[in-house]
Amino acid sequence: MSGNPAGRERRSCRGARQAAARRRAGDSFAGTLAPMTNTLITGGNKGLGFETARRLINLGHTVYLGARDRERGEAAAQRLGARFVQLDVTDDASVAAAAAWVQRQPGGLDVLINNAGILGGHVAPPDVTAEVMRAVYETNVFGIVRVTHAMLPLLRASSNPVIVNVSSGLGSFGVVNDPGRLESEVHALAYCSSKSAVTMLTVQYAKVLPDMRINAVDPGYTATDLNQHSGPQTVEQGTDAIVRLATVGKDGPTGTYQDAAGILPW
Question: Which residues have a catalytic role annotated?
């Protein structure tokens, strides 16, 4: 075999680290694994986004950490060894500027993780107004459309393009109607319906972009700022499914809705 022996050794060591890290995380992967990727994560400066970035970097991937707040985003990227890009998913100009920045990076873009999301406060369903709905949808739904639309030309240039949309079990009709599930006791009109919309966005994109692996993920009830750290799961547990689906190969699943245990009901 021809090539640089030192380079082969580095790739071999990196692959060993990747496999070991996955074994430690307890991830079960469908299909082959993706090669090292350039991955953009929205809302990457804290919580699930930050932990996803940390794990992917530990596996050897390059991460573009998107965050609305420059100071916090740059600090998070520096801690992780990621590359910061300012990105407000609710702002067309910000998203366009981020796409232009990513396009200038060596290696382009292989994976998009639409992670940014907001809860929208605790408002009883009868008291929810259109303005409350609009604010939540602007980030959780329109933000995904805005970022995906801007990044699709870059993803199409990848040999193994992947999109992971972070949804929630609270957006699953099957889960919230199961009296045995904690989600059945939650009444959050704006948030729950926005996450149902995320899964449908995922299905529609997957149907018309068959060369991409596009999936939705429920992280589970994870301790983050979104719920005042009340969730029983750690952020590492909450990112298991995200990392699994962000690193699938060309023969991996697409158009699915999964959590750490596997397929979820719509």
Answer: 191, 195
Cα R_g (the chain), whole angstroms = 18
Is-contact 73 65, C-beta < 8 A? yes
Quote the CA–CA distance of 134 and 191 in Å, as a whole number: 11
Distance CA 79, CA 45 (A): 10
Core vs surface per residue 149-163: b (16+ CB within 10 A) or e = ebbbebbeebebbbb
- Global pTM value: 0.86
Number of Cβ within 10 Å of residue 121's Cβ equals: 12
CATH superfamily of 5-263: NAD(P)-binding Rossmann-like Domain (3.40.50.720)
Domain boundaries, the chain: 5-263
Query: pLDDT tens digits, residue range 36-46?
Result: 999 999 999 99
**Type of residue at 4:** N
- Helices within the chain (DSSP H only): 5-25, 47-58, 70-80, 92-103, 130-140, 142-156, 173-176, 189-208, 235-238, 240-246
Q: What is residue 251's DSSP assignment?
A: T
> What pLDDT, in 10s, does the model give residues 93-117?
999 999 999 999 999 999 999 999 9
Counting as low any pLDDT under 50, the low residues of the chain are 1-29
